[in-house]
Amino acid sequence: MLRTPWWAILAVGLAVAGCDREEAPDYEGMESRLLTDALDSLRSEGATSSLSALRRLADVDPDSRLPDLAVAHERDRELVVRLNQQFRAGELAEASKILRHQQRYGDMGTIFMAWRGLPDALRAVQLYVAAKPYKTSAAVREALARLDGHRELLDRAPAFVEFLKGEEVEISGLVAHEREQVAESLFG
Q1: 113-128, pLDDT tens digit by residue?
Q2: At what angle do helices 92-105 and 66-88 cross, to 10 degrees?
Q3: Are 126 and 91 in contact (CB under 8 A)?
Q4: Checking phi first, is residue 29 left (phi over 0); if not, alpha (psi -120 to 50) or beta?
Q5: Three-class secondary structure assignment of the chain
Q6: What is the pLDDT of residue 54?
């Protein structure tokens, strides 16, 4: 009787048992390439190609939260770019309209909730500057008081803080001029 070594039987058994199973996933395959593409596009390309790469990644791995979080981040970044374009062009009404639309229909993240009053605040600053020059220190203070409702938001900007310092210097100059006029009118 021919005896088969036990290790040969074990090897054949393992080979047969493994034949019905799927091949191990290719770790260097599509998912890795898509992730690399998505990260590269986030780093260097526009929002449209980034969103497209992230959607392809989500299709391959629907259980991953990374594409969803990255898509939300890209949408926010795209919105910030649009808002900055509106602000730079001085189109505050359009920026306000974009923020109101985002608040009503979009996913208004906390950063946008914190900045939703910015177009109105900038419009108030525009009105203040457009009314210059003010004739008296009281008129300047009164006009600056109209900005008080927006100060929490405006004070976050170093440029506005510097602007206020300049206005305080202007008020001091007006006060000195007013005192000179009073003294001149009294002492003639």
Answers
A1: 777 788 889 889 989 9
A2: 160
A3: no
A4: beta
A5: CCCCCHHHHHHHHHHHHHHCCCCCCCCCCHHHHHHHHHHHHHHHCCHHHHHHHHHHHHHHCCCCCHHHHHHHHHHHHHHHHHHHHHHHCCCHHHHHHHHHHHHHHCCCCHHHHHHCCHHHHHHHHHHHHHCCCCCCHHHHHHHHHCCHHHHHHHCCCHHHHHHHHHHHHHHHHHHHHHHHHHHHHHHC
A6: 73
* Closest C-alpha to 37, from 56, 64, 61: 56
Nearest CA among 144, 138, 139 for reference residue 167:
144
Please name the amino acid found at residue 14.
Answer: L
- The tens digit of pLDDT for each residue in 49-74 reads 667 777 777 777 777 777 777 777 77
Give the amino acid at 84: N
Q: Cα separation of 78 and 102, whole Å?
A: 12
- pTM, 2 dp: 0.56
Token code pair at residue 143:
């006009």
pLDDT of residue 21: 54
> CA 136 to CA 174: how far, in whole Å?
6
